[in-house]
Design brief:
Blueprint: H1 2-20, E1 25-35, E2 38-47, H2 50-68
Antiparallel strand pairs: 1-2
Helix pairs in contact: 1-2
Length: 72
């Protein structure tokens, strides 16, 4: 169980660092106009908020610490 927490914590922290550096983006498709069957769409690349990356780093570090601590 503890090894699982450590592994998951490392993965979440690594993803958090990736997001915090601004490397994680997604495509957002938006319909600008529609006239009958004809649509005008715009696709824009957006980045995930950096604050979400910081939260991932904190949560991942917490899981690693919780997995490393021993019960007395």
């Amino acid at each position: 169980m503890r090894a699982g927490l450590i592994v998951v914590g490392i993965i979440i922290a690594a993803l958090g660092i990736w997001v915090a550096l601004g490397k994680f983006t997604y495509n957002d498709n938006e319909t600008k106009a529609q006239l009958g069957p004809i649509k005008v769409q715009a696709s824009e690349q957006k980045s995930v908020p950096v604050a979400l990356g910081y939260v991932g780093i904190i949560v991942g570090a917490g899981l690693v610490i919780a997995g490393a601590m021993r019960k007395s």
